[in-house]
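In the previous chapter we treated chains in isolation. Here, by contrast, the input contains two separate entities that must be folded as one system, with a combined length of 1010 residues.
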Amino acid sequence: MPEAIAYELAKKQKEISVAEFFERNKHILGFGNPTRALFTSVKEGVDNALDACEESGILPDIYVEVKNPTEEECVVIVEDNGPGIIKQQVPHIFARLLYGSRFHSVRQSRGQQGIGISAVLLYGQLTTGKHAKIISKIQDDQPAVLTELAIDTNKNRGEVQHQEIMHWDKPSGTRVEVNLNADYKRGKRFVYDYLQSTSIVNPHARITFKEADGTEHVFERTADILPKKCEEIQPHPYGVELGTLIKMSKETKARKLASFLKTDFSSMGDRTANAVCDEAKLDRNLNPADISRDQFLALHQAFKKVKIMAPSTECLSPIGEILIRRSLKNETREISPEFIFTASRPASVFTGSPFQVEVGIVYGGNLPKDKPVKLLRFANRIPLLYQQGDCAITTAIASIDWRRYGLDQPSGNGIPIGPAIFLTHVASTKIPYTSESKEAIADVEEIENEIKLAFRECARKIQLHINKKVRRVKTREKFDLITKILPEIAKKSAHMLNKPIPPLEKVITKIMDVVWIEDVVEYEKVRGKPIQRKLDATSPTGQIESGGWIAKSTIMVVNYKSKPQKFNLYALFPKDAVVGEVKPKPTKVTDSYIKWSLESIDPTKKIDILFELAGLNKGDFDENELYVQNINPAYVIGADKWEGE
Amino acid sequence: MARDYSGVITKIDAIAAKVYADLEKAEIPALHLSTRTKANIRFDDDLNVWKYGKNMTERSANSLDGAYMLLRTMYLVDFIKEMISQSKSSTLRETYYISEGWNLAKFSSQNESDMLAEDLEVITGCMREDFKLRPEEDGARVIGNLVVEEMTRNNTKKKIHCQDDVGDAGYGIPYNVEKEKLTFKQVDADFIVAIETGGMFDRLAENGFDSKSRAILVHLKGQPARSTRRFIKRLSEEKKLPVLVFTDCDPWSFRIYGSVAYGAIKTAHISEYLATPSAQYLGVTPSDIENYKLPTDVLTPEDVAALKSELDDPRFQDQFWKHEIKLQLTLGKKSEQQALAKYGLDYVTDTYLPEKLAEMGMLKK
């Protein structure tokens, strides 16, 4: 009797090594070609560095260098000022795939799977045979440790080739140096784009890039505030998969089903936990360890049927409108754009994961008028540079009819054409990427909708701004008319008829027939005394910095109507600002607006209004948003109708 | 020859008075005049020409443009008064340059000052000659068996025979063709041919068409000047001569015919002085392109737009024009008078014109 085929097959069956796994999946991991390999290596290094700095409350100062010793080979160096890594952990973190601290947590972070940096080292070793060099220093009074690291591809283990103590000037930090096969000529641009984009959404980071020829680019920090720390949260029942549910039940300390639901999931109170048990027809006191697969299935289905509160959005760390604006302003200085607008949506949820969308639009200046709008896509502060066409951000933008907002869009959908840059940032505890290389967001309806809403809001602001400008220009023309031309007409006609020049005030109010509101924002530098701030309340240094900028907003209201006018005026200001002096006395001041009930203004008379804001950087706020109440808004130039808060 | 301008001065002063009265009443000053557009011309049955309809345009100080317009009007009116009192006159171009000294009221192009002079005609019912303004352009040329008597600069009358006393260029029509300046003496001709291009005018002259066919040739020089149109009208009406208009075959040439026969949109307020309602269109017609197999050019988008605009121009609503304009739009082609040279230099005078004239009942075949 011949041997069973299964035995024959068994001879061939063995554990595949990580090296083989990598070789087969390198395109998914971002190493599909030598150009991508360079970009991915830098990206993994920088993402890690940023995460490490932020987790330990350090403002990141990151140095990236790429050398190009031979045609095919590059040396990628990424250095940070983070907390460093103790020497025993170095081989695990850098040389073991699927090893990391964030794999199990539900929280907004850049890396998730623990594949990133070790994949870079593995790729380097596979293509050049050279070992990676890691320098790390954990404390100012301790020496740095240099480790040369190889990966045992059969065991998925790091092997320390050499380790020595060395002097390093930094108080703490980590430096990784990897040799790898890469296409420097083509890959360089992507590295630059990636670092520039990264700097836009990480205004708290300073990034230096040194090219192979020695050219250095510095992307300066524009905010001295670390992003809000992201809280770790329990998984939400809506997003949990059956397998995860079973796994969680094995690891829980809870002894009863109801308390398991309450303690291991977010958004579950007594009432919802009981409702889920009832819906699944399961005893609330059932021991999680004794639940059968069918019972889990019932429980899993019950999650979907019971109304459960949305997960807490506290775990998200959006960039914030002011900082997005500041970064965009800084990065587009050379373009000298006409304006920058931003919009931020409240946090929302898709299948149990909270997420939040922020957008920014840069318009005008030297941007090309006949090219498609440039899209800057970000997910959890990581720039997405590839696969633009497959991304939910692109789909959402393309589905808006931009012709309504003055951009070209041949068929009413697709990427609009015009002198603009569109920035989108999606923050979430779980970004639904289309693939492991994390380059595009999958088309999740909830996310797409939020992106659309955010852009519509931003476009509306732009439209208001433009309308206001157009009306102002028109009315400003009338100033010429009433101050220069009309008196001339009067003089000439009087002269021809030998009569005295008639008075013109009433004709002037008839011609203007508006209440004119004009405002200007100026910045004053203050030195030596403390300035109140809100934005820096979370500053790691904890000190109140002295000196800074005071924004002074002056508003002039002139009544060019033929009757006296009395109305309320509202001035909006950024939530991060602190209100200083306000003249005349306001009726109300909240955290986002000032309200005046103005006294009656006689025809051709004017009122001056002034308020000061502290805690902003110069340029954070350079256009007042003004609203009026108790007056027909059509009479007013320079302010819109107050629609309530 | 002193002329009484007091009527003109009264009308001009009324403009200043209207503006002043508005200001005194605390009203926004404004002047009103007939709207000078295609949509506002109506056929006047009594005068047999196209005149402005009832629509009025307001020139009001409520807008920046309107205010500038009013201020310029005041300056122009003042300038006219000054010229009248000093017995001077100026060309339209000089007026444009005079405005250099008017500060805010300065014209930004001559087109603006020309338009304003026309506006003043419309408002006051006077002619620009009453304002002591004359055009830059002279009228065009005439060749034919006709004797005109012109008052010369030294106030003597001079008779000119428009074949014998003139060179190849013909008799030049002066800018003033009113009776006190110019009269028609003997004429021995059967009809007037008004010709768009100088090339064709010279061809007919060289071929002796004026003698052989007893025609008076008038060169239109494109869109004809007022004096040319006035000359044609007077000659046609006083000497009972039919007028035939001979132009290129494109929408712009149809408009030349329109302004000769019906009155131009821009000058509809004086159509009865300028238009010759009996003038007929000789060609080149779109049908001629087909019948004579003429060389053609493709219509440009501007040509097509102009043709379509003529389809709802009230002046071009008769059967003939509707048919020809639609035909041209279908052909998508245009042609020139001089394209007839395809069949030789004499073809136009030996074949084309005799055929066309016979068709129109002017000449026996």
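The first helix of chain B runs from residue 6 to 24. Chain B touches chain A at residues 13, 16-17, 19-20, 23-24, 26-29, 61-64, 67-68, 70-71, 74-75, 77-78, 81, 103-105 (CB under 8 Å). Compare these points with the single-chain example from earlier in the chapter.
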